[in-house]
What we know:
Blueprint: E1 16-25, E2 39-51, E3 56-62, H1 70-84, E4 93-99, E5 108-113
Antiparallel strand pairs: 1-2, 2-3, 4-5
Amino acid sequence: xxxxxxxxxxxxxxxxxxxxxxxxxxxxxxxxxxxxxxxxxxxxxxxxxxxxxxxxxxxxxxxxxxxxxxxxxxxxxxxxxxxxxxxxxxxxxxxxxxxxxxxxxxxxxxxxxxxxxxxx
Length: 120
């Protein structure tokens, strides 16, 4: 049984942000038992990518990671669409299907152009 296609772009347009990561420093005595209150320090070379709406960590990335948010990726896709189909507007561009896990950690958006084909 085939599942229904998802075509509503609102499902992939949610806010994500970079957040610092803090590690817990635990002091232990000579027996290995924790002593006193733990201290925390910021991890300088890594950050968390967080789904703001759900307060869910999607990934831990290096400080050099380039985050491309879904709305930015869709705009880049539209620019490619305009170039591939040699047109000046995105009229005819239609979402065919969206694939995204429940965690929302990634998505694939398939577009079609009504009336055009890439066949020779």
